[in-house]
C-alpha cells in the first residue's frame, strides 16, 4: 500500500452533498474536481448499513457507498491505496470531545479534526460543554474560560454538516456543574457544590436557557443533557429546605422537567444512564449486574429519552453483554459510549484503549447496537496532547468497520494524518506495564504525576515504590526503550508532535534519576553525591522541564484557546520553583546553615499499600488546600 499523490473526480456526476464535501476536503487534501474526471469515481447504492467498497481498476479508484460518511471513508481508503469492502451496523459512529476541563478547542483546529473524522468514516461528534458556551443574561457562564459563542457553534455545525457529520450538544442539566456553581451568583440554585437544586424555579429558568441555546446552535434534533454522577443528590440544601426525599424520585422528577423543556424546543434528550443503575443497589455501583430495578422505574423514564451507556473500563465481553441486556430491561435500546483514553494522560494511551474498546465494539456488533461513540475526557486539566489521539480515533473507526489488520489502519492513518501510526501508539506505552508492577488501578502509572511529583516530598514516587521496590529502575528502562524507538522520528509533527514526546521522556527519566540519587545521597550522608545533585542533577531537570513547558505551550496554542493553559503552566512553574528550593536546601545542609531537609526526614514506609494517584493535587502537596 502507498499514499496516493492526488485524486481527480468529475464533478458532473456527483450528488450535491458529495460535491460539497469533496470541495471542503480539497482545502487540505489533494482532491481535484474537474470536468473530465480522472482516477476517482463514485457509485451510490442502497444498503441499510453504512457501506463502503473501494476497488482499483487500471489505476482508477471506484468507491461504492450507501451514505455520505461511507463515501468519504472510501476517499480515505483510496488515499491509502486500500481496496476493501466494508460495512458497519453503526449508523452513527463518532467521538465525544471534552471542551470543559480547561481545553476549549479552536474553531479552525476543530475543523481540521472534522476532516480527519470524515475520512475515517465517522459521522457524529458530541461536544461536551458544561459552561464553555456564552449564555445570554448569564455573565458568569464560562467566565475566564473562553466559551464558544452561538455564532461560532453554528459555524462549526455548518462545516460538520458539509462533511456529513452530525454535531450534538453534550451538556449538564443537573450535576457536574461546579464551574458554574462556584460563583456566588448561583448560590441560590446549589444543592451541593456540584449539583443544582431540584424543584427550584431558578433552576428551571436556567435549564430552559441552556436548552434554548443548544436548540439553535446545531441542526441536530438531539441534545445530550448529561445528568450523570449526581452523587449526593437531595442531601445538601434540598434536604435542609424540604427534608429528606429519595434520590430516585428526585432524579425522575428532574428528568421529566428537562425532557419536557426539550420537547418544547423540538429536541430529543439523551442522558448518561448510570444514575438509574446506581439507584438499584446500596453501594451506588453503576456496573452492578444483579440488583433488580425498582418496580415501575421504566415507566418513570420519558419514552423519548435516550439512554447512553458509558463504559471505558471493562476488558471482558461478558460485562458489556450483560449491561446492554440490563438497559433493554428498562425498555431502552442504549447508545454505546466507549473511550479513547486521553484523560489523566499526557499522550493518548493506546494499550488501555484497545483493551477496553475492542471487546466493547465486538459485543455491540453482535448485539446490533446502531450507535457508538468514543469519549475523550480531560480530567485533571486536559493536559493530554490531543492530536496524539487521532491514531486511536482512526483505529477504533477501523475496528467498527471490521478491519482486523492494524497495518491497514497504519496505512489509513499515514494517508489522513501524514504521520507514523506505530510511532504515535508506541509513545502511549509510557502508561504501560513497568516490569513487575501489577496492571490494576491501584498502581497504574501516570507520567504526569511523575513529572509534577513534589521533588522534596516525593509523594508519587514513594507511592509507586510501595507498589514495587524496583519501580524507578524498571520505569526508566521502559522510558529509555520508547525514547530509542521514537528518536529517529523526532521531527514528525503532523499528528502528535514527537519532539514533545521526546522532551517528556527525557524529563521523566531525569526526574526519576534525580530522586533515586537524592535519596541514596541524603540517607547515606554522602556529601559529595549531594553536592552533585545540587550542582548537576537539579539544573539539568529544571532545563528539561522548561523545555517540556515550552513545547506544551506550543501544542496547546495550536490546538486550543489560551484560557485554561494557565493551570498547567502553574504546575510546571511550581515544579521549577520546588526544584530550586531543593537546590537551596541541599546547599544549606552542605554549608552547615541547616541540619536537615525536613521533607526528607521520616520517609514513608515502603510497606504501605499503594494508592491510586492520578490528580495533581494528590502529588504536589500533602495538603489539599490549593
Structural account:
By secondary structure, this protein is of the alpha/beta class. The protein contains 22 helices and 14 strands. A hairpin with a 2-residue loop joins strand 4 (50-57) and strand 5 (60-65). It is globular. The relative contact order is 0.08. The model has no long low-confidence stretch (mean pLDDT 95).
How would you sum up the major sheet?
8 strands, parallel
Spatial extent as radius of gyration: 26 Å
Rough shape?
globular
End-to-end distance, in Å? 53 Å
Number of strands: 14
Please state the average pLDDT score.
95
Strand content: 5-15%
- The number of distinct helices, counting runs of at least 4 residues, comes to 22
Strand order of the largest sheet: 9-8-7-14-13-12-11-10
Structural class: alpha/beta
Amino acid at each position: 500500500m502507498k499514499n496516493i499523490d492526488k485524486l481527480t473526480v468529475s464533478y458532473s456526476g456527483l450528488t450535491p452533498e458529495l460535491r460539497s464535501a469533496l470541495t471542503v476536503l480539497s482545502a487540505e487534501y489533494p482532491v481535484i474536481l474537474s470536468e473530465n474526471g480522472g482516477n476517482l469515481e463514485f457509485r451510490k447504492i442502497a444498503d441499510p448499513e453504512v457501506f463502503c467498497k473501494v476497488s482499483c481498476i487500471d489505476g482508477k479508484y471506484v468507491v461504492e457507498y450507501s451514505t455520505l460518511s461511507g463515501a468519504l471513508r472510501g476517499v480515505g481508503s483510496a488515499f491509502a491505496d486500500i481496496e476493501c469492502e466494508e460495512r458497519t451496523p453503526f449508523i452513527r459512529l463518532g467521538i465525544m470531545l471534552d471542551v470543559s476541563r480547561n481545553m476549549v478547542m479552536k474553531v479552525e483546529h476543530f475543523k481540521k479534526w472534522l476532516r480527519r473524522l470524515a475520512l475515517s468514516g465517522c459521522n457524529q461528534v458530541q461536544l461536551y460543554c458544561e459552561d464553555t458556551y456564552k449564555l445570554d443574561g448569564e455573565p458568569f457562564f464560562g467566565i475566564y474560560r473562553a466559551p464558544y459563542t452561538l455564532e461560532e457553534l453554528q459555524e462549526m455545525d455548518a462545516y460538520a454538516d458539509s462533511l456529513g457529520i452530525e454535531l450534538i450538544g453534550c451538556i449538564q442539566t443537573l450535576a457536574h456543574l461546579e464551574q458554574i456553581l462556584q460563583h456566588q451568583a448561583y448560590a441560590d440554585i446549589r444543592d451541593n457544590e456540584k449539583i443544582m437544586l431540584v424543584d427550584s424555579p431558578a433552576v428551571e429558568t436556567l435549564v430552559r436557557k441552556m436548552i434554548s441555546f443548544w436548540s439553535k446552535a446545531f441542526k441536530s434534533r438531539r441534545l445530550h443533557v448529561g445528568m450523570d454522577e449526581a452523587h449526593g443528590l437531595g442531601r445538601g440544601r434540598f434536604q435542609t429546605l424540604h427534608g429528606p426525599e429519595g434520590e430516585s424520585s428526585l432524579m425522575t422528577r428532574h428528568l421529566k422537567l428537562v425532557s419536557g423543556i426539550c420537547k418544547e424546543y423540538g429536541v430529543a434528550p439523551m442522558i448518561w444512564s448510570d444514575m438509574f443503575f446506581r439507584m438499584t443497589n446500596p453501594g451506588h455501583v453503576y456496573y452492578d449486574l444483579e440488583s433488580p430495578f425498582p418496580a415501575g422505574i421504566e415507566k418513570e423514564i420519558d419514552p423519548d429519552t435516550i439512554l447512553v451507556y458509558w463504559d471505558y473500563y471493562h476488558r471482558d465481553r461478558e460485562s458489556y453483554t450483560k449491561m446492554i441486556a440490563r438497559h433493554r430491561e428498562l425498555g431502552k435500546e442504549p447508545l454505546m459510549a466507549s473511550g479513547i483514553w486521553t484523560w489523566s494522560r499526557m499522550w493518548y494511551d493506546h494499550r488501555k484503549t484497545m483493551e477496553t474498546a475492542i471487546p466493547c465494539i465486538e459485543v455491540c456488533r453482535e448485539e446490533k447496537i446502531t450507535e457508538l461513540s468514543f469519549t475523550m475526557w480531560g480530567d485533571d486539566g486536559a493536559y493530554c496532547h490531543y492530536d496524539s489521539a487521532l491514531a486511536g480515533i482512526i483505529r477504533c473507526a477501523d475496528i467498527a468497520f471490521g478491519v482486523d489488520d492494524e497495518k491497514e489502519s497504519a496505512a489509513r492513518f499515514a494517508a489522513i494524518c501524514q504521520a507514523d501510526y506505530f510511532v504515535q501508539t508506541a509513545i502511549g506505552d509510557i502508561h504501560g506495564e513497568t516490569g513487575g508492577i501489577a496492571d490494576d488501578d491501584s498502581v497504574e502509572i501516570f507520567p504526569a504525576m511523575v513529572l509534577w511529583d513534589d521533588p522534596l516530598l516525593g509523594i508519587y514516587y514513594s507511592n509507586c515504590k510501595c507498589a514495587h521496590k524496583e519501580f524507578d529502575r524498571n520505569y526508566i528502562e521502559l522510558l529509555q526503550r520508547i525514547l530509542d524507538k521514537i528518536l529517529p522520528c523526532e521531527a514528525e509533527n503532523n499528528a502528535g508532535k514527537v519532539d514533545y514526546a521526546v522532551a517528556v521522556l527525557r524529563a521523566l527519566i531525569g526526574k526519576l534519576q534525580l530522586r533515586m540519587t537524592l535519596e541514596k545521597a541524603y540517607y547515606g550522608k554522602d556529601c559529595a553525591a549531594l553536592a552533585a545533585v545540587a550542582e548537576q542533577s537539579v539544573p539539568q531537570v529544571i532545563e528539561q522541564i522548561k523545555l517540556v513547558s515550552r513545547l506544551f505551550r506550543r501544542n496547546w496554542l495550536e490546538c486550543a484557546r489560551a484560557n485554561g493553559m494557565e493551570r498547567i503552566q502553574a504546575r510546571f512553574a511550581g515544579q521549577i520553583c520546588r526544584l530550586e528550593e531543593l537546590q537551596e536546601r541541599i546547599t544549606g545542609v552542605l554549608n552547615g546553615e541547616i541540619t536537615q531537609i525536613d521533607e526528607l526526614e521520616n520517609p514513608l514506609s515502603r510497606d504501605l499499600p499503594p494508592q491510586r494517584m492520578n490528580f495533581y493535587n494528590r502529588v504536589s502537596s500533602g495538603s489539599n488546600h490549593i
